[in-house]
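Quick start: what a row looks like.
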Amino acid sequence: MRTWRGVLATVLASVGVCLAFGASALELKEGRDYRLINPPLPADKARIEVTEFFWYGCPHCFDFEPIVAPWARKLPADVVFRRAPALFPNNKWAPHARLYYTLEAMDLVDKLHRDVFNAIHLDRQRLDDEKILFEWVAKQGVDVKKFGEAWASAGVRNRVQQARDTTVASRITGVPSMVVQGKYLVLTPGTYEDLLEIIEQLIDRARAEAGKN
């Protein structure tokens, strides 16, 4: 298992903002294991919300995806997992955020989300280049005309703007970043498993705070 520290040099060289983290803890401590987001981000009121901020170009996110995806599928019914493409003010990640929301608009995230990661990190496809992206989409059997319509739609453009606003409001500094119920930002996992353990403890805390235990 690769630790976050083990890939720090590679990440800093390639994207500059993906961060490594320290060791895990048995008991949660503010400032070490999590940071409070104030004011909290909007979150699901009926269920406990876990949000993954990610970027398709981040090696950490690529490594994390095959771990977090099966974990998310096993979450209890009172927990909802959401993905949020991170988008910082420099807009360098905007094409990938736009790609994610186009896939979401076409109900293709489950089908192609992992394939996008593979295309970028294994096949070295520049999916931030619109021409290359559309060629790749066609090879996946997607209707390119419909993809283009969704890609250019006001709905997708609005979601990209919302992603930019949410990223700024969350005050995250790197990806992947995990947030529980809009207010707990995980800070210090040593491994991906440590990260998920802290998230599960924060889910229990959010459940208790909501009086749902």
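That is the whole record. The first strand starts at residue 34 and ends at 36. Strands lie at 34-36, 48-54, 79-85, 177-180, 184-186.
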